[in-house]
Amino acid sequence: MPATRRKRAPKKPLPKHHRLPDIPVTVAVHEARLLADSTRRYRERFARLPDFDLGLLDGLPQLAAALDERERAWVLSRNDLARAPRAPLRTQAARLRSEMVRSARYLLRAQPEALAGIGRKRNLASLAQDLNGLARIVKKHAAKFAGDPVLPADVVEVARKLAGELCKVPGSHPARIASEARNEAYWALAHAVAEVRAAARYLFRNQPAVLAEMTSGYQGDKQKRRRARRRSAAPAAEKEPGAKG
Q1: Both 33 and 98 in a single domain?
Q2: In which element (H, E) is residue 136 found?
Q3: Does the structure show a pLDDT above 80 at 2?
Q4: 157 and 110 fall within a common domain
Q5: Model pTM greater than 0.90?
């Protein structure tokens, strides 16, 4: 009788403050302001919709302003962090993280979810978080890591010590806080924009000119470029190797 394959548990989404924006912040702010302007004269129609939070529509300008402000604060913190004397420490921490990730990918290859969220972040403020997370993973699976030929025997202590030193680097904590605040503001705005556009598609489905004012130009251009790439790739894929043009 064939063995029953266990279903892999779905990955939990990262908290909003850890999720990076999926479009440029300047574009998100600009498009949210355009959306607020284009929907203002139709407010009463939005207000009559069932299951629609009118506060999301009214709050678009404030949400856009909050994201713009937090993006500027994050850029300033990031620049301060870039000027901090951190190069040797960062190099050491990044090297250890890389070795720990390589070992974990092999030793825990049957449990890929164990490494979710590790090894993707590149800024200094996230290195400490990654090292602490990897230290917890190694400690939890100590038996598997015991014979690792590369990692030091006290890798858990080394990783935690490095993480602690990274947190003491001037600017690392403010930069992390600023980054998380920016991410929170982005996803709050993204949610409001998505809800307003969904309502607009319902309200103005027979008025394409009106709906076009409320549609994302950035996402539309992105989709056009994607379709163009697919069309250009299709003839090359269909053409047999060695066939004459």
Answers
A1: no
A2: helix 124-140
A3: no
A4: yes
A5: no
